[in-house]
Specification:
Elements lengths: L3 H15 L6 E5 L5 H10 L2 E6 L12 E3 L15 E7 L8 H11 E12 L4 H10 L27 H10 L3 E7 L7 H26 L7 H6 L3 H5 L2 E7 L1
Parallel strand pairs: 1-2, 1-4, 2-3, 4-5
Antiparallel strand pairs: 5-7, 6-7
């Protein structure tokens, strides 16, 4: 389940596209209680469809939920090119094959359609310190073997950093990627004061080494790599990534 801050951040990201190309048909994946649908209907007047692994979480009385387990069914139950915008908040960390689902999102979007995704920021300073001490990033941890509540943190099976999500979107032939965050994690400010200088120094040294020795960085991926140690990335709680078909 997402938070109100995430819903508002996704709505703000959508608003930038709406000013250019108003949208009407909206798909919310992992719709949960339907709160984002409610926000979109109020702000944009959308006609919203919802899909989720269950309809028991839906709180909007007239909202139909198309039930689909995206870890078992790899195809969305919709025809090609029927939505103007697809949202998926706090969903991709629950998925086994998120790259296939991105290809499906692109399939159901109309030309110039928009997708907006959110997932926990595993690169913020709190998450990095937790990984250093414990071996797990924030909001990820030891998983139960067998049955688990897949919509809760115990269902987080895919830590997904911004770079790999951006890579997957571009490989799925999306374009015009945009990054934002839901909020600043104030609890990370003190840690950042301690670690900021070493992070900057070692990241710059490693960046140059990757270029000169390993040749893994070029003009196509350099900006995405630089973003991984930006101030926003180090303090942002949740990443909001949007792209056009």
């Amino acid at each position: 389940m997402s938070t109100e801050k995430i819903y508002q951040a996704v709505s703000k990201a959508a608003g930038k596209y709406y000013r250019e190309t108003p949208f009407h048909d909206h798909l919310d994946m992992g719709a949960g209680s339907g709160r984002l649908i409610q926000v979109f209907q109020k702000q944009f007047g959308t006609h919203s469809s919802a899909c989720d692994y269950t309809d028991s979480l839906m709180a909007l009385p007239d909202q139909k939920v198309d039930i689909i387990d995206l870890n078992k069914e790899k195809r969305l139950p919709y025809p090609d090119a029927v939505f103007d915008i697809v949202t998926a908040t706090e969903l991709f960390e629950h998925l086994e094959d998120y790259r296939q689902i991105l290809r499906e999102i692109r399939r159901v979007l109309r030309p110039e359609g928009v997708c907006i995704l959110s997932t926990p920021n595993v690169l913020n300073i709190n998450s990095r310190v937790r990984y250093l001490w414990f071996g797990f990033p924030d909001l990820f941890g030891p998983l139960p073997f067998g049955d688990r509540a897949i919509h809760l943190t115990a269902g987080h099976i895919t830590p997904l950093s911004y770079f790999y999500l951006a890579h997957a979107l571009l490989e799925a032939q999306f374009s015009s990627l945009s990054l934002s965050f839901d909020k600043v994690q104030r609890s990370g400010i003190l840690k950042l004061l301690l670690f900021f200088l070493p992070i900057k120094l070692f990241s710059q040294w490693t960046f140059r080494r990757e270029i000169s020795r390993y040749r893994t960085i070029d003009s196509k991926n350099a900006d995405f790599i630089k973003e991984m140690n930006s101030l926003g990335m180090l303090l942002g709680r949740t990443i909001i990534v949007s792209a056009r078909k």
